[in-house]
Amino acid sequence: MSRNKINILGQYLKTNDSIGYVVLDVDKGLSKHALELLKKVKATIKVRLLY
């Protein structure tokens, strides 16, 4: 995200024995760009955008 000048305003991380996830809060104006970057992360299972 920092490489693309996307500031993370907040984050929540959680893992268990088989999976981990992250919830990111970013500026609304950059959220669609952040979504596309996250979709490109290898081994990503699901990405969604909430307002």
Using only CA atoms, what is the Rg?
Answer: 11 Å
Q: Bin the strand percentage.
A: 25-35%
The coarse silhouette is globular
Return the string of H and E elements.
Answer: EEH
Biggest pleated sheet:
2 strands, antiparallel
* Helical segment count: 1
Average per-residue pLDDT, rounded, comes to 90
In short:
The chain has 51 residues and is α+β, with helices and mostly antiparallel strands.
Molecular structure report:
- The protein is α+β, with helices and mostly antiparallel strands and 51 residues long.
- It has one domain (2-39).
- The protein is built from 1 helix and 2 strands, in the order ββα.
- It has one helix spanning 31-39; strands spanning 8-15, 20-26.
- A two-stranded antiparallel ribbon has the order 1-2.
- β1 and β2 form a beta hairpin.
- The relative contact order is 0.22.
Features:
single chain, 51 residues, alpha+beta, two-stranded antiparallel ribbon, 1 helix, globular
Topology:
Layout: E1 8-15, E2 20-26, H1 31-39
